[in-house]
Amino acid sequence: MPQGRAHRRGFGSAGGRRAGSERGRGRRGRARGRDCRHQGRARRGLRLRCLRFLQRSRISVLCIVWAGGCRRGGGVSGVGVARAPASESPESATAAPALEARGIVREYGPVTAVAGIDISLQRGEFLTVFGPNGAGKSTLLGLLSGALRPTRGDVFVNGTRLDFGGVDWRHDVGVLSHQGFLYAQLTVEENLRFYGRLYGLRDLDRRIPERLADVNLGDRSNSFVGQLSHGMRQRLALARALLHDPDVVLLDEPYTGLDPSAAAVLRGVLTGLKDGRRTVVMVTHNLGEGIALATQLAIQVRGHFAWKGSREDVDVADFERLYHRVVEGRA
């Protein structure tokens, strides 16, 4: 190449080499941007193909899959847990409650479903929340799980605040709701394996048999969910909620529709949650079962805790009368 042309194109001098290097970095940056956009399109296309496959299979999907964003620092988009400030001491982090709610409020237009509830539970505690229909109990669990955004107030899990951006929160919380989110066309094991992959769990060959044994379904792994009784499906839904070994477990009316025999089996399974490791919040209308399992009790009326106290301070024989007085506004 002639010398003049080499100099014009930036060769043969330090300045030219720097200019060439800068152009190279610019091209690499643009290439990374194109890769980012391509990865985003690929993820969206994969989700659409999965949804179309499930729709063709007549499987209803009622779960949300968060995909990692193509951004600095990686991470997972969606509801997250905001990390505690770096200035906090190790002692304060250790002493933080496993689950805490500070003045949480949830409003739907003029209707206030949850009206300024405070909760503070240490690791190993079990709170049972009673209350009439329409008191806002399920909404409360939605706020504690991060599925609902509070109008005001904050929720903390292990000392870190749930927010709606940042790191993933799903591994800290397990939820058993009214809907079991189980697929009747799949077997018991296939249901758990499906959810395990959504959580990104790699040791499913170990976890699945352990969780099924915990809920007394070890011999049902190859049964189709559509063939299970209601009580078995409740226990399988609990195994799904525990599959990722969460620190906080939220139970919404687990005894609904169970006969006495199935309720007794479920009671044994829930008693196993009181292992000192997990913190549990259960909403139920079943006074006897709720009191037997709890370390803390609360009665929710019109969106707020009208009464709360320790299980040790409650006379079980008198609690039903107390409940009716509180609900009717006479206590």
Provide keyphrases for this structure.
12 strands, 331 residues, 2 domains, 10 helices, Rossmann fold
What is this entry, summarized?
The chain is α/β, with parallel strands linked by helices and 331 residues long. It is built from ten helices and twelve strands.
What topology does this entry show?
Layout: H1 3-8, H2 14-56, E1 80-82, H3 90-95, E2 99-108, E3 111-121, E4 126-130, H4 137-145, E5 152-157, E6 160-163, E7 167-168, E8 173-176, H5 188-198, H6 204-214, H7 230-242, E9 248-252, H8 260-271, E10 279-283, H9 287-293, E11 296-301, E12 304-310, H10 316-327
Parallel strand pairs: 4-10, 4-11, 8-9, 9-10
Antiparallel strand pairs: 1-6, 1-7, 2-3, 2-5, 5-6, 11-12
Architecture overview:
- The chain has 331 residues and is of the alpha/beta class.
- The chain folds into two domains: 54 residues; 242 residues, P-loop containing nucleotide triphosphate hydrolases (Rossmann fold, 3-Layer(aba) Sandwich).
- The chain has a six-stranded antiparallel beta sheet, covered by helices on one side. It has a six-stranded mixed beta sheet with strand order 8-9-10-4-11-12, with helices on both faces.
- Helix 6 packs across helix 7 and helix 7 packs parallel to helix 8.
- The chain starts with a helix and ends with a helix.
